[in-house]
Amino acid sequence: MGISWWSVACLWLALQRAPSASAASWAATPQTWPVPYRRFDHRPEPDPFCQPVYPFCPTGSRDGEIPQMKDRDIIEVYRLQTPVWEFKYGDLLGHFHIMHDAIGFRNTLTGNNYTMEWYELFQLGNCTFPHLRPGIEAPFWCNQGAACFFEGIDDSHWKENGSLVKVSEITGAIFNKLAQWVKEDNRTGIYYETWTVQSDPSPNATVWFKSYDCSAFVLRAYQTLFELGAVFKSPTQTNYTRIFLYSGEPSYLGNDTTIFGPHSNKTRGEEITYFYFPFRPPHSVKELILSLLEIVDKVVLEKTFYLYFNFEYWYLPMKQPYIKITYEEIPLPSKQNKSKVT
Ligand SMILES: *[C@@H]1O[C@H](CO)[C@@H](O)[C@H](O)[C@H]1NC(C)=O
Ligand SMILES: *[C@@H]1O[C@H](CO)[C@@H](O)[C@H](O)[C@H]1NC(C)=O
Ligand SMILES: *[C@@H]1O[C@H](CO)[C@@H](O)[C@H](O)[C@H]1NC(C)=O
Ligand SMILES: *[C@@H]1O[C@H](CO)[C@@H](O)[C@H](O)[C@H]1NC(C)=O
Ligand SMILES: *[C@@H]1O[C@H](CO)[C@@H](O)[C@H](O)[C@H]1NC(C)=O
Ligand SMILES: *[C@@H]1O[C@H](CO)[C@@H](O)[C@H](O)[C@H]1NC(C)=O
Ligand SMILES: *[C@@H]1O[C@H](CO)[C@@H](O)[C@H](O)[C@H]1NC(C)=O
Ligand SMILES: *[C@@H]1O[C@H](CO)[C@@H](O)[C@H](O)[C@H]1NC(C)=O
Ligand SMILES: *[C@@H]1O[C@H](CO)[C@@H](O)[C@H](O)[C@H]1NC(C)=O
């Protein structure tokens, strides 16, 4: 069976949620999978067309400053997780675990606590689907994501139907090194990627592309802490939400210049634009329903998805079960469990 109407509808709702270069060259070297997420040397100013509904990181300091701890301070580390908005207040909680992840820190000497998270600058819908703008041929993406660090942990926000669980205790010296890592990670990792794409749902599947989202950030941060000497322990399972696409081996198509530029093959560009047409942020219920029909049609019937990754397009020959949202365990880093995160 293909994906049901219901799951597509839910996926759609998930994608509408509020707050919360590449390998593929002309070179003859064989493609490595998963395609590495491209790092940049700086973060560009977002285009003024991209306007957030909710301001990014409203209570963080302007330049993301992270306070220096004394080397010998003892800092508790918390795993923070909460359902994203629609799933918390709608009746969808329980159908899917669509969760947002973050990390909390508490300095046991000063009593001050802090939240660190990574999320979309312009909401998830904009990171997942582009805007088709009149007069601009290439689909237009408002897909930046970034780290936000602010003082305080809103306990009730995380506890209700989520988790606020102590997972480690580190020194101030380790915390300060993590702070440096976050700065660098935030400077070089600039865009959000919703989808994890792999060959099938089995544990042995070939992973074509990895998501780059709030939970990927938390997993990278845990791994960094682990490498700096942190020891992790959780009383509960550490599960994360991932949104999967299943496809055969992807093929590289090109970037905005090669696909949509003056010397490009117009057919390919038109196919991509046509594919993304129904995914535009909907203006009415009617438009939403038409969009959903188109999504089912394209992904399931045409077995096609055009993935945008590293600011380049890939063709995915989609196959069953097409799309899946999972909430599965990824253990905390430990000596037994060697790095699963890259
Ligand atoms: C997406 O981007 C558009 C254009 O900048 C903006 O109006 C909108 O608020 C953003 N958010 C969503 C969820 O579409
Ligand atoms: C990450 O980058 C964003 C966008 O430039 C910025 O607002 C934020 O403060 C930075 N976060 C950290 C922790 O440096
Ligand atoms: C938390 O989950 C319970 C059980 O599913 C539900 O009854 C309750 O409304 C949820 N709380 C919120 C704030 O959604
Ligand atoms: C964080 O600090 C706030 C304000 O003092 C307090 O209400 C909250 O319980 C603290 N949370 C944790 C996990 O330390
Ligand atoms: C995964 O690979 C192992 C070893 O190659 C094999 O024994 C196992 O049957 C495979 N599992 C699946 C679900 O394909
Ligand atoms: C697109 O790809 C071409 C060929 O690989 C490259 O020369 C060009 O700089 C790229 N353009 C952008 C905007 O990345
Ligand atoms: C242009 O792209 C289309 C669709 O990808 C393809 O069928 C066609 O052969 C291409 N034409 C040329 C001249 O490369
Ligand atoms: C967490 O993941 C494990 C295995 O990945 C699964 O067995 C378990 O049911 C998941 N927990 C929840 C609450 O879904
Ligand atoms: C290591 O990972 C496996 C599954 O991936 C899990 O069952 C096991 O409990 C983990 N061990 C530790 C010490 O976390």
UniProtKB/TrEMBL annotation:
PANTHER family the record matches: CEROID-LIPOFUSCINOSIS NEURONAL PROTEIN 5, CEROID-LIPOFUSCINOSIS, NEURONAL 5
One GO CC annotation: lysosomal membrane
Protein origin, superkingdom: Eukaryota
Annotated signal peptide: 1-23
Keywords: Glycoprotein, Signal
The name this protein goes by in its record: Bis(monoacylglycero)phosphate synthase CLN5
Function as written in the Swiss-Prot or TrEMBL entry: Exhibits palmitoyl protein thioesterase (S-depalmitoylation) activity in vitro and most likely plays a role in protein S-depalmitoylation.
BP-aspect Gene Ontology terms: lysosome organization
Catalysed reaction, written as an equation: 2 1-tetradecanoyl-sn-glycero-3-phospho-(1'-sn-glycerol) = 1-tetradecanoyl-sn-glycero-3-phospho-(3'-tetradecanoyl-1'-sn-glycerol) + sn-glycero-3-phospho-(1'-sn-glycerol); 2 1-octadecanoyl-sn-glycero-3-phospho-(1'-sn-glycerol) = 1-octadecanoyl-sn-glycero-3-phospho-(3'-octadecanoyl-1'-sn-glycerol) + sn-glycero-3-phospho-(1'-sn-glycerol); 2 1-(9Z-octadecenoyl)-sn-glycero-3-phospho-(1'-sn-glycerol) = 1-(9Z-octadecenoyl)-sn-glycero-3-phospho-(3'-(9Z-octadecenoyl)-1'-sn-glycerol) + sn-glycero-3-phospho-(1'-sn-glycerol); 2 1-acyl-sn-glycero-3-phospho-(1'-sn-glycerol) = 1-acyl-sn-glycero-3-phospho-(3'-acyl-sn-1'-glycerol) + sn-glycero-3-phospho-(1'-sn-glycerol)
Molecular function (Gene Ontology), one example: hydrolase activity, acting on glycosyl bonds
InterPro entries linked to this entry: CLN5 (IPR026138)
Family of this protein: Belongs to the CLN5 family.
Species this protein is from: Scyliorhinus torazame
